[in-house]
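#structure-requests
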Amino acid sequence: MKTQHVIILGATYRPFDPAPDLADGLPEIEPPKNYVDAEKKAASIKKKTELRNEALADVWALKQFDSLRVCYDNGRDTPMIVTAESIDSNTDFVSLLAPVCDAIAAVDARDVLYIGVGVRDILRILRSRHGVDGLIPYQRIADQRDVIDAIGLLNTSEIAKHLDVLYVLRSLGIQLDSDYAPGRSCEKDCNVAMQVYNTLCRVRDQPKLAL
């Protein structure tokens, strides 16, 4: 049986703050026309602004890493874990992830599986913004092959209409903290991705991940 090389990724992001040039290009937010009271107008504008910024914060090209965790497991050797906390403009991702990139460069790319919460966003940001070329060929990120988003795997529009996808994960035996939410903890996101892989994605004669 071929050895499968699994990369688990988790990230948290800084709060979204529109840059001045971006903010200038956004449509002006206005209260409902029938609002007369100044406080009600201000509250409406504030709420609409928050909702808009939350939506923009989900756009991968606007996300800024706050922390990152990358784990590599080949089922034989001790798993390799790379973490970065309090990321800023001086963080050198190319050097930081060089050991992982070197490890997967030595194997057949067809045997490498990438999993995580919002994993495609993480890979896109690493490749396009931070120049981490060795982690994954960029053109494959958009493909379904060999990339598993632990939350997106189940979070279809039909599911979202009826229930929280975290309910689905819990019903499958995935262990989640009562206050768990995606994107708040790299370690917890990686743990969720590992459990989803072990429960739903691996071939049964493949070893379980145990990071």
